[in-house]
Amino acid sequence: MKRLIEPGTVSISDRQKELVNKVLDSTRLTYGPMTQRFEKEWAEMHQVRHALFCNSGTSALQVGIHALKDKYGWKDGDEILMPAVTFVASMNVVLHNNLKPVFVDIEPKYFSIDPNRIKQKINNRTKAIMVVHLLGHPALMDEIMNIAKQYNLKVIEDSCETVAAIFDGKPVGSFGDISCFSTYASHIVTTGVGGFACTNDDDLAVRIKGLYNHGRDGIYHSIDDDNSSKIDMIKSRFNFIHSGYSYRLTELEAALGLGHLDRIRPELIKRQENADQLITQLRSLEDDNLLTLPVVHSRATHSFMLFPIVLGATVDREKVLHYLEDNGVMTRFIMPLLNQPIVKKMFGDIEKNYVITEIVDRKGFLVGIHQGLNRDDIEYMARYIYKGVRKYAN
């Protein structure tokens, strides 16, 4: 019997409904106790001092980079190194801050920025390395942090696709000067839309609080934060010191997210179990060089937002993907950034200069591996991937 295997899933628990109803009953819809609790628990989970709930991971990156630029006096046109495989938002936020993205090829195992290729891109205008923890697996943070220290570069962690994963005993998001997460509907923790800007730097946190709240004095967050005179608080509330943005979310989204956090660990375990099963069932295709399966670094954990597969040179990807779709297995591409029209318009046809990126862009695809899939679903998906790859291998 034909099944439908989607890349992602959304399930709303009774706990989430309870917290959302609590917000509705309170009539406090903007920043309040739910947001404060959600931010506190997110910060604790990722071992950071500050976690600020924004309306998207993109917004979090935007204000985080803006805050870095202001604090350290970066000039327009200064450069940020970033991986050549990532979602377009990673590039857009650099451009929107009037900075220049400089692409670096990825390493082939974990699809993150290749530390061995970073140094050759550094010059006197390089200010930061943007690390993207792609699809649930941490980047090689030990090597990257050593390079950043050697060249006095800031580190920006784009962890929009990776939640609660560990590298060298530390959670993603706790390494860099700033880190950003997404709680979009298709991601591991979902609030519908949303994200976090995180930092261990108190000064950056104040700057981000101001920037994402219309440019207000970053010390202010809520009229209920202390017992000061309301008149004095209102003076602070309408004290604008930056040209800022409106990037906050409401208590409703915070309630959805807070109610999801107690399910994170079992859901991540289920994602890992599903990934292990799929790897086992497709191993013979890898042994025959017909595809490459994901691996997990010996000092890392993987949160498997999605499951990446890179087909061998002899396999026709388009035919395989159509075959899978015809049989109910939905797929996505692995972030083909450099072949996007906007990138070609701005930087030219540069993909051919990035060997691993080009292979992943042309031969890679993603399938779902989420906690909503059971063993029979994984077996069904594996069967049709196996059939499709064998069928369309030359």
Q: Main sheet: which strands, in order across?
A: 1-9-8-5-4-2-3
Give the CATH level 1 class of the largest domain: Alpha Beta
The profile of the biggest β sheet is: 7 strands, mixed
Rounded radius of gyration (Å): 22 Å
Outline: globular
Q: Could you estimate the helical fraction of the residues in percent?
A: 40-55%
CATH superfamily of the largest domain, please?
A: Type I PLP-dependent aspartate aminotransferase-like (Major domain)
Classify the beta-strand content into a percent band.
Answer: 5-15%
What CATH architecture of the largest domain do you see? 3-Layer(aba) Sandwich
Number of strands: 12
**What is the number of independent domains?**
2
In round numbers, the mean pLDDT is 95
**Main structural class:** alpha/beta
Order of helices and strands: HHEHEHEHEHEEEEEHHHHEEHHHEH
Could you say what the CATH topology of the largest domain is called?
Answer: Aspartate Aminotransferase, domain 2
- Give the termini separation: 29 Å
Figure out the total of helices.
14
Task: Give a verbal description of the structure.
There is one protein chain. Helices cover 41% and strands 13% of the residues. The protein is α/β, with parallel strands linked by helices and 394 residues long. The protein has two domains: 14-262, Type I PLP-dependent aspartate aminotransferase-like (Major domain) (Aspartate Aminotransferase, domain 2), CATH 3.40.640; 263-391, Aspartate Aminotransferase, domain 1 (Alpha-Beta Complex). A seven-stranded mixed sheet has the order 1-9-8-5-4-2-3, with helices on both faces. Strands 10-11-12 form a three-stranded antiparallel sheet. The protein has a two-stranded antiparallel ribbon with strand order 6-7. Strand 6 and strand 7 form a beta hairpin. The protein is globular, with a radius of gyration of 22 Å. The mean pLDDT is 95.
